[in-house]
Amino acid sequence: MENDQQILNFLGLARRASNIVTGQDMLLSQIRSGKIHFLFIATDTGQATQKKFNDKSNYYHIPVNDHYTKAALSDAIGMKRTIIGISDRGMAKKLVELTDKIKGE
Question: Which of 96, 104, 79 is nearest to 18 (CA)?
């Protein structure tokens, strides 16, 4: 549970550092241009949207975290969002490490 909170806190830090991208159209555009390095997809996102972004992330080899609800992600960044992209490579790498830690528990 501690690692879950670490990830959400880190997501908030990414927001404050202006390293997140939100909004479906903007995210799709940024994914296609290779500027998104990590993706959060809320568990309660619509099926069609989940499929669209999971397919894009698989095609472009973008790691995905789909373990949080819309409420948890929204609280972390202070905006109501279901899909959040991380545009900073270093922050994305740290999020992958934290996500792998949770999977290993």
Answer: 79
Lookup: tokens for 73: 């992600």
Is the domain spanning 2-104 CATH 3.30.1330.30? The answer is yes
Two structure tokens written together for 88: 């900073």
> Which regions in the chain score pLDDT beneath 70?
1, 105
Cβ distance 36 to 14 under 8 Å? no
pTM over 0.90: yes
| Selection from 13, 27, 25 nearest residue 77 by Cα | 13
62 close to 37: Cβ distance less than 8 angstroms: yes
> Taking the domains of the chain in order of start, what are their residue ranges?
2-104
Q: What is the pLDDT of residue 93?
A: 96
